Amino acid sequence: MVDDGGEGLAVLATPYLVFLGDCVEPGYAKTAFGLRDWAGDKCVGEYRLPAATVSTGLPAMSPAEAKARGARSMVIGIANSGGKIPPAWVTALEEALAVGLDLVSGMHAKLADIPALQQAAERYGRRLVDIRKPPESLEVGTGRKRSGKRLLTVGTDCALGKKYTALAISRALADRGVDCAFRASGQTGIMIAGSGVAFDSVVVDFAAGAAEALSPDAAPDHWDVIEGQGSLFHPAYAGVSMALLHGSQPDVFVVCHDPARDCVLGNAGFPLPDIAEVIDMTIRLGSRTNPAIRCGGVALNTSSLDEDAARALMQRESERLGLPVCDPLRGGAEFEHLLDSCLAL
Q1: Would you list the domain boundaries of the chain?
Q2: Which among 67, 109, 210, 237 is most buried, taking Cβ atoms within 10 Å?
Q3: What is the pLDDT of residues 13-61, one digit of tens each?
Q4: What DSSP state is assigned to residue 70?
Q5: Are 139 and 206 spatial neighbours (Cβ–Cβ below 8 Å)?
Q6: What architecture is the 149-343 domain classified under in CATH?
Q7: Of 108, 71, 70, 111, which is closest to residue 94 (Cα–Cα)?
Q8: Rounded to the nearest 5°, which phi and psi values hold at 264?
Q9: Which pTM does this prediction carry?
Q10: Is residue 167 pLDDT above 80, yes or no?
Q11: Which residues are in the D-glutamate N-acetyltransferase-like N-terminal domain (predicted)?
């Protein structure tokens, strides 16, 4: 059977078995790596087809072995080009249903649209959960100011660390005793958090309303840390970034940037904007729904640099911008300064 938990919000059964299919390109396995890095306690292992060369390092096991170890769902850990479910995967997906696991997918292609999987789900009484399905009762954005505090990650481009930054900030705030919640806006974040809205599946007129629904009224001292999407400067995805900015009404935003990248990913004709330009544009546009919006600092993805080069770059950029600059995954005093800046309302 097909079950989405009501109103399009999937209720995910954990722990997971992570399915890597026949993946040979690590970049397509970002969902699997995200689950390993941020929800490792929810993952019992990985299941790969013989042709696969990519691994998360989780224990290798079959669906039956995973079920015996407590798994309740098999999650497709791949986000391939076009979000397709290849015919070569179907037998393995049926196998998971047959041993008693739900199937969870963040692909654009829908599990429920594959007859063999729909029939198997009915036969074995399991769920097909498609993450990229928006809530059915969304309203258009109102711009109404909501109670509570909000932080949004924004970027100079797509796919450079907005989710990881939001997760790192949320975890660090919780460690400080701050009442906070991570609000997921993409398929991997939803699998990590267990709830959220996949913004790339929302009809554009309702996108700002979806951002409002994602982060509702809260206690005055509660923080929602909202995963950003795309970039206001992206030639294809600026629309979703704008909707998230207006709908989430952030009190604070953090700019995410990969210093190893010069041009928009997949669009070499578009150079990346300077971080200062992103800060200025975000304030000008975001002030439409929250006049008090401000930048809390910058998160750099320094995975291409060694420790000394990364720390030196953070220092230079902090002096240039007059803001805390850190790499959240490296942590350290720079990250603590960013947190202090974000909380200083």
Answers
A1: 16-130, 149-343
A2: 210
A3: 899 999 999 998 888 888 999 899 999 999 999 999 999 999 999 999 9
A4: T
A5: yes
A6: 3-Layer(aba) Sandwich (3.40)
A7: 111
A8: -60, 135
A9: 0.86
A10: yes
A11: 55-134
